[in-house]
């Protein structure tokens, strides 16, 4: 935890962990201020969790969440008013500390010269020179059109699986191409592994690596959050006011897990039997709670589509049930699956095999049920149920274990941008993956509005298509690469067996292997070995290195 002192009454720092709150109090701070909205990062504690930890250490906690790159003057005023009443000294934090430092500078501009504020922040490790116009005046017309802080041939928004794979595939086609990846995160996660972490198969440390070690050699890493887009001017605005220009833009920031959309869920995660494999720090809790449960009721939920890896909620269900069956506890634990959708799985060919396991594990299926609230201390989950006539009613169920999956949406800076469709997703042509309105903008991964499954396997197939078409666009050539909607969902139906669902647009089956090797419609030991032993190194050493094994793009024309 790197703490930077701005004044005698305020310091700022990157994300504070739950285990670090005691150290904050030990250093003499009286107040802790969170400027980071819940759900930004996979390993981020909620503000309710932080408030409880701060209270236990005698700290006054304040929550003033600011969307990355969108610090308004009203936000700065609220921050200044908060500092005036909070016990000093105070420590403010966000993802990197930049938002907190920006709030401080803007809240202090009437009392302190702009140059002094920028010098103070620079000594503390935060470069706020891009704020100079805002520190000296309320607005500067035409700012974006008149300035450029950086310029690259290709700018990629997002350093997740899609972004790094796209950069690596670009370099494989055009060595030396000027590429920049924009992402503020320090860590990169192999999220498909979290299902196996939640089942005790993987250690969580196997699913995370430092971002710095994964950025392809020669690619610039702009370690900042995006504030907005000006596609008419080929510009991206970053946190702090910086402007980056591009010839080609690739947008792949992932999606947002909206934990706060379900009242009561965020504050009880990891406690009261409430777990989720959708967060790095919570997946180990799933395995711990599953092992500890000896009797009672276990609820597993799936929110409305689209979500990241639509099979993941079921994977948690099947692997938990398999453990209880092997431990001789199946008859003592009532297991229920609450799915907001109307079917068990969207591709009908795989449903018969899944239903066999539903019957084997004696799972009660409940379709048309959406989790709407969680009362953790009393262990009550509330669901909105769709009735045959179209009406909805609220159903409450007690639980001893609740595996909750949050609703998911595009990041806020995407939803509010010109790149978004009416639903907030990046508006892409499903074949070329080029933006429907801006010819030099492409996209892939979970933030796009294409109808494929949102999985790492989809991004693995999309990255070469985008790379091929971006290079073609740079050369003023036709876009000949096409994405067929391929996605894969290895459904872990028991420890040691997987139903390997592979499909393209429209639910068309798209197997990678002959059926005599792996018949994806049936549970397979070989498919389990593929997921456990082959796919992780294929991800780290293949996909992220631009090696397109079984992922070469289809070319037309």
UniProtKB/TrEMBL annotation:
Residues 153-271 form the FAD/NAD(P)-binding domain. The keyword Flavoprotein applies. Residues 5-110 form the Beta-lactamase hydrolase-like protein phosphatase-like domain. It comes from the Bacteria. Its cofactor is FAD. Keywords: FAD, Flavoprotein, Oxidoreductase, Quinone, Transit peptide. One of its GO terms (biological process) is sulfide oxidation, using sulfide:quinone oxidoreductase. One of its GO terms (molecular function) is quinone binding. Signal peptide: none annotated. InterPro entries: BLH_phosphatase-like, FAD/NAD-bd_sf, FAD/NAD-binding_dom, Prot-tyrosine_phosphatase-like, Sulphide_quinone_reductase. Pfam families: BLH_phosphatase, Pyr_redox_2. This is Oxidoreductase, pyridine nucleotide-disulfide family.
């Amino acid at each position: 935890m790197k703490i930077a002192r701005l004044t005698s009454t305020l310091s700022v720092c990157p994300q504070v962990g739950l285990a670090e709150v005691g150290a904050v109090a030990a250093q003499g701070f009286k107040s802790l201020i969170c400027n980071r909205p819940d759900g930004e990062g996979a390993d981020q504690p909620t503000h309710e969790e932080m408030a409880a930890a701060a209270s236990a250490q005698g700290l006054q906690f304040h929550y003033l969440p600011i969307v990355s790159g969108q610090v308004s003057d009203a936000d700065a005023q609220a921050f200044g008013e908060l500092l005036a009443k909070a016990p000093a000294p105070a420590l403010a934090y966000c993802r990197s500390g930049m938002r907190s430092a920006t709030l401080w500078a803007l809240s202090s501009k009437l009392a302190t010269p702009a140059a002094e504020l920028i010098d103070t922040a620079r000594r503390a490790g935060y470069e706020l020179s891009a704020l100079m116009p805002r520190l000296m005046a309320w607005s500067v017309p035409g700012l974006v059109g008149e300035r450029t802080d950086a310029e690259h041939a290709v700018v990629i928004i997002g350093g997740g699986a899609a972004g790094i794979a796209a950069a690596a595939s670009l370099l494989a086609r055009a060595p030396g191409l000027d590429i920049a990846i924009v992402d503020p995160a320090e860590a990169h996660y192999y999220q498909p592994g979290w299902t196996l972490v939640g089942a005790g198969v993987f250690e969580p440390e196997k699913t995370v690596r430092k971002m710095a070690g994964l950025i392809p050699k020669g690619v610039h890493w702009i370690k900042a959050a995006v504030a907005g887009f000006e596609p008419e001017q080929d510009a991206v605005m970053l946190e702090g006011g910086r402007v980056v220009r591009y010839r080609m833009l690739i947008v792949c920031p992932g999606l947002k897990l909206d934990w706060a959309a379900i009242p009561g869920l965020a504050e009880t995660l990891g406690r009261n039997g409430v777990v989720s494999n959708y967060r790095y720090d919570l997946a180990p809790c799933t395995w711990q709670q599953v092992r500890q449960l000896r009797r009672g009721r276990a609820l597993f939920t799936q929110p409305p589509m689209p979500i990241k890896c639509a099979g993941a909620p079921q994977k948690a269900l099947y692997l938990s049930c398999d453990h209880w069956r092997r431990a001789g506890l199946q008859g003592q634990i009532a297991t229920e699956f609450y799915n907001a959708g109307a079917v068990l799985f969207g591709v009908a060919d795989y449903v018969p095999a899944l239903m066999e396991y539903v019957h084997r594990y004696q799972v009660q299926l409940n379709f048309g049920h959406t989790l709407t609230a969680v009362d953790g201390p009393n262990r009550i989950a509330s669901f909105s149920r769709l009735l045959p006539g179209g009406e909805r009613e609220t159903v409450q169920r007690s639980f001893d274990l609740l595996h909750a999956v949050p609703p998911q949406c595009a990041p806020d800076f995407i939803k509010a941008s010109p790149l978004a469709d009416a639903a907030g997703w990046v508006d892409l042509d499903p074949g070329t993956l080029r933006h429907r309105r801006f010819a030099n903008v492409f996209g892939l991964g979970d933030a796009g509005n294409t109808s494929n499954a949102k999985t790492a396997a989809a991004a693995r197939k999309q990255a070469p298509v985008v790379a091929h078409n971006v290079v073609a666009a740079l050369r003023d050539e036709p876009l000949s690469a096409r994405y067929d909607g391929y996605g894969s969902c290895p459904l872990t139906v028991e420890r040691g067996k997987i139903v390997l669902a592979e499909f393209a647009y429209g639910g068309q089956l798209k197997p990678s292997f002959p059926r005599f090797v792996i018949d994806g419609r049936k549970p397979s030991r070989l498919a389990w070995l593929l997921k456990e032993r082959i796919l992780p190194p294929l991800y780290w050493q293949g996909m992220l290195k631009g090696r397109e094994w079984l992922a070469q793009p289809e070319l037309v024309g």
